[in-house]
Amino acid sequence: MKHIKYLVFAITGLIFTSCSDDFLNPLPDTAVAVESFFQSDEDVLAGIIGIYDSYQGVNENTQTNIGRANRGVQFLHLLTEHRTDNTRNATLEGSKSDFHRYVVNANNVESEDFYQSMYQVIFRVNNVLSFIDVADESNQASYAAEAKFLRAYAYFNLVRLYSDVPLVTSVVGPTDSEALFTRTPVAQIYVQIVEDLQEAVNNLDNSFKSRASKAAAQALLAKVYLTQSSPNYSGAQQLCESIINSGEFDLESNFSDVFYSELNNEIIFAIQYETGNSLESQSFSSEFTSAFRQGREDGQNIVNTNLFLDFATHGGNRTAASITNLGILGQDDNEVIKFLPDGSDITTSPPSYGGNARNAGNDYIVLRYADVLLMHVEAIMAGGSQTSNSNALNSFQEVRDRAGLTDLVSNITKNDLLTERRVELAFENQRWFDLLRFGVAEEVLSAHATDRGYVFSGRDLLLPIPAREINLSGGLLTQNPGY
Q1: How many angstroms separate the CA atoms of 129 and 127, rounded?
Q2: pTM
Q3: Averaging pLDDT over each range in 67-76, 291-300, 387-396, which range is the top one?
Q4: Residues 58-87, mean pLDDT to the nearest whole number
Q5: Is residue 263 a part of any domain in this protein?
Q6: How far is 244 from 240, CA to CA, in rounded Å?
């Protein structure tokens, strides 16, 4: 993470005990506090920065052994985008190709890594919160709110991917099996997520885009309200309108600038990386290449035909900034170019990917303003099949206008909104969650699987609880149905 990881890097060994090969069991050694460390406001802040480090994860090219280093969000496209009708892996070999074919099992190492990464975030949050009174009194509320925002995002990812998971909100010992392995109902976890995010909304400002902020908490809480089994549509609408009316965010006029002019006006929250620094960079950008492969493995996020066709019809100027055929690929083989490794120039023959493709600095965008505008439409639609509400039309039109699609829209159907979200937010790991939230995941993905010769069933709406965690629990942690 640019600018902030350095603060913690030199003292990580003091904050947390050293890591072994099984440093997440699932309680990592890193969750055990060194009580003598947090002695000042600066120490608590350093601990908070260490939470972001867990989200950032370790570049696969820096530490190739997945058992030694978590990847944070760097594998999230596998667990989300690949399980939709958007993209797939270029190869059928290896565990990374299991996701797009719906053959993920409980031993899948990428799923296990993400599960562990989120709990590493949670344990670090709980550790910091246990020492919050060491901080200056004037900073305690904002520090606690920032940590709780980060815990909420981790749990939001976990419940949407795995359903009931252990809810741990305080520092626990490695032998406290009941706390570590008892699955908590999703509804109860959402109570904690909402509580954490409301505290973040009330105690943060908008000073940062690469750290938690009030707007990030508002946007994430709006998405939580839309996702719950009993959606709070009016609450989500109010939160979106608060962001819209703040005047602090706007759409970039050039769609490509959203991804290559980092921390721009449209970004609400992003996880940052730094080009060329093995300790600060990411590898997913290089893995999205295929025809002229820059990553360690065959290309990931190869664009499926039906997404290509949606771009052709609904993409407008977003298409050329999102996918490419490099002049040689068929419509079922297009590559993602939203996150080309920085320094890339695909206009050359062959394309030039710069000198740091495997140590890229492209940020991971968690929340941006276009997403908020489209959530605003969704909240106003309130689960209905369509809307002609003027406020919804304005938000929808704003996104389309930026795409060069300036024909005026007078009515928006649920399918219109889902398609607009698809082409606007493609490859940003939103499609899986959108299909679930709109209640069409099984219908859309069953048809997609049939078209591509895969087998999809209802069990695939959830990932399996990692077998390693179940084994460590001695059977206390139970498995999802069908696995």
Answers
A1: 5
A2: 0.93
A3: 387-396
A4: 94
A5: no
A6: 6
**In the block, which residue shows the tokens 């908490």?**
217
Residue written as token pair 């105690």: 203
Q: What is the largest CA-CA distance in the chain?
A: 63
User: Is 103 within the bounds of a domain?
Assistant: yes
Which has the higher per-residue pLDDT, 201 or 174? 201
CATH number at residue 43: 1.25.40.390
Tokens of 246: 């703040």
Cα–Cα distance measured from residue 366 to residue 267, given in angstroms and rounded to the nearest whole number: 8
Q: How many CB atoms lie within 10 A of CB 331?
A: 16
Where in the sequence is the domain holding 95, given as residue range(s)? Answer: 1-79+91-204+440-483
Flag the least confident range among 32-46, 104-118, 307-321.
Answer: 32-46
Note the pLDDT of residue 67.
Answer: 81
Query: How far, CA to CA in Å, does 136 sit from each of 182, 212, 295?
Result: 35, 19, 45
Q: How far does Cα 249 stand from its chain's mean position?
A: 20
**Domain tally, the chain:** 1
The residues pairing with 413 across neighbouring beta strands, listed in sequence order, are: 386
Q: Is residue 260 included in any domain, yes or no?
A: no
**Token pair of 466 as six digits:** 């990692």
Tens-digit pLDDT profile for residues 185-210: 999 999 999 999 999 999 999 999 99
| 65 CB burial (10 A radius; 0-12, 13-18, 19+) | exposed
Instruction: Examine residue 354 and state whether it is found in any structural domain, yes or no.
Output: no
Pick from 221, 98, 118: which is nearest to 161 by CA? 118
Residue range 246-294, pLDDT digits in tens: 999 999 999 999 999 999 999 999 999 999 999 999 999 999 999 999 9
